[in-house]
Write a structure and sequence with these properties.
The chain folds into two domains: 1-400, no CATH class; 411-489, Sandwich (Immunoglobulin-like). The relative contact order is 0.15. It has 492 residues and is α+β, with helices and mostly antiparallel strands. Strands 1-5-4-10-13-9-8-7 form an eight-stranded mixed sheet, with helices on both faces. Helix content is 17%, strand content 24%.
Length: 492
């Protein structure tokens, strides 16, 4: 069986303006050849001074709750209103399916439609800017979060050493799927977002005319989807010790994210090349906290006239003045995994800076962000050694395949299915009250009670599904009022 490695690597960030932060990791490794980690998660909150605060969570209650919502075993209210985007794909681009859930009875259908329209506008922008033959699945939740909590978002998994990916390198779900040519976690969503329905300062318009007192929701979604699609690195500096590390704080195996492989120190050389600074060293910390870093690759150099794209590292007190807890230190979730604030904020390439002011809106990712995406692999090209497909040789590993989840009591099989599925309830204390199937075109069908048979193993007859869809979402509602959403595929 595969070992689990848990590394507490807590990172906090407080900002007086909206922080569009990438997200910490709860590092759990599966396997000796192919590995996966629960993906990054950030939580946006409003502090008691009326400021936006972004705290990076991993391996704690907040992170675990988010990942539980985002897995195929999502615990959600049984009376949530559901919408399904059609995920249209042109000759070029990507097919992105979004499964929208309104879990707030007080959030009217009209407000829900306005919010999902803004979210979908951001999705459509990204679908036109990237290409993939593997559909991308997004779960978008709207719920009455606790007072002062705006939401959380992030990719569900990162993968390493899958055939088609660069060797010994972490990739987010969607990019890993594209390069592997298959859905590596077919029962899970690729990206999960959960936003507050009671935060009063979202602007849900799509005209970029954001009122001065509000935050542009579409811009926030564009930014968060960008992280979910792969704009994140694993570099980190401990402010107390000055020690820098990469690989999400995991001592073994030590793999960088694909983003890290593009990062250059101030001398213009790769930070990772020949292990120049070492991992878990003050030398690496000094480089990360020192002069501005850049990311470089063939497409990035072309977009920046050979200079590389400048990354955000620290807020310099010589420029911003002394701000305790904010200037001259590493800002987890903001430092490094964003473009430089002073260089790009408010300009056409400003979407991926770490801070968003009220009243500001962006309508596209910008040329530099798209160039970074291409050098990450979204153009289908890999810059270094690619992991070969040795599946026919067998690894001798008795662990679950990628994308499986053995930590939950409920499992569904076979998936893909032909005419029926079985729900293994052996370890469950709940019982199924009803089952509803939603297809990829938004249509729903209530499964008759007579077609849900069994106790410990519940068989659900799906032979009456006659539409054109191969993808379905199965909502199971239980006797305790909870509901779960499972992504299932039909094998034609």
């Amino acid at each position: 069986m595969k070992d689990k490695t848990i590394t507490p690597h807590i990172r906090n960030l407080i900002s007086s303006i909206l922080v569009l932060a990438l997200i910490g990791l709860s590092p759990t490794i599966y396997g000796q050849v192919s590995q996966e980690l629960p993906g990054p998660v950030s939580q946006l909150t409003l502090n008691n001074r009326g400021e936006i605060e972004c705290v990076i969570h991993m391996n704690d209650q907040v992170a675990n709750k988010h990942h539980t919502m985002g897995s195929s075993k999502s615990m959600m209210s049984s009376n949530g209103k559901i919408q399904q985007s059609k995920g249209k794909k042109g000759q070029d681009g990507a097919q992105i399916f979004v499964f929208y859930l309104n879990l707030d009875p007080a959030f009217s259908d009209e407000d829900f439609n306005i919010a999902t329209t803004a979210f979908q506008s951001a999705v459509d922008i990204w679908a036109s800017q990237i290409t993939s033959d593997v559909p991308i699945f997004v779960l978008a939740l709207f719920s009455p979060l606790d007072e002062g909590v705006l939401g959380s978002a992030g990719p569900t998994f990162v993968f390493a050493n899958v055939p088609g990916l660069e060797r010994d390198t972490w990739y987010g779900n969607a990019l890993a799927d594209k390069l592997a040519g298959e859905d590596l976690s077919p029962v899970d969503f690729d990206i999960v977002a959960n936003f507050s329905t009671v935060f009063p300062n979202w602007y849900f318009g799509t005209d970029a005319n954001t009122p001065a007192e509000d935050f542009d929701f579409r811009t926030v979604v564009l930014h968060e989807l960008c992280h979910g699609l792969g704009f994140f690195g694993s570099m980190f500096v401990d402010n107390a010790t000055g020690i820098g590390d990469y690989g999400f704080g995991i001592p073994n195996p030590v793999y960088p994210a694909i983003y890290d492989r593009l990062a250059n120190s101030p001398d213009g050389k790769s930070i990772l090349k020949d292990n120049r600074y070492g991992n878990f060293t003050t030398e690496l910390g000094d480089v990360l906290l020192g002069d501005p870093l850049t990311v470089k690759g063939p497409r990035i150099k072309k977009a920046t006239n050979g200079k590389g794209a400048k990354l955000f590292t620290v807020l310099d007190s010589d420029v911003f003045g002394e701000i305790p807890g904010l200037t001259d230190i590493w800002l987890p979730g903001s430092s490094y995994s964003h473009l430089d604030f002073l260089t790009y904020a408010g300009a056409p390439n400003g979407l991926m800076v770490p801070f968003l002011a009220r009243g500001l809106a962006y309508e596209n990712p910008g040329e530099i962000t798209l160039a970074i995406y291409n050098d990450l692999g979204w153009n289908g090209k890999i810059n270094r050694e690619v992991m070969a497909d040795n599946s026919s040789n067998g690894s001798g590993d008795d662990s679950p395949e990628l994308g499986s989840d053995t930590s939950n009591a409920l499992t569904i099989y076979p998936n893909p299915f032909v005419n029926s599925i079985a729900v293994d309830m052996v370890l469950e204390t709940r019982s199924i009250l009803k089952a509803t199937v939603y297809d990829m075109y938004g249509a729903s069908m209530q499964i008759p009670k007579k077609n849900i048979q069994g106790n410990s193993i519940v068989n659900i007859d799906l032979s009456k599904l006659r539409n054109r869809s191969d993808l379905y979402f199965l909502q199971l509602t239980f006797d305790n009022g909870e509901a779960e959403i499972h992504k299932i595929m039909r094998n034609n």
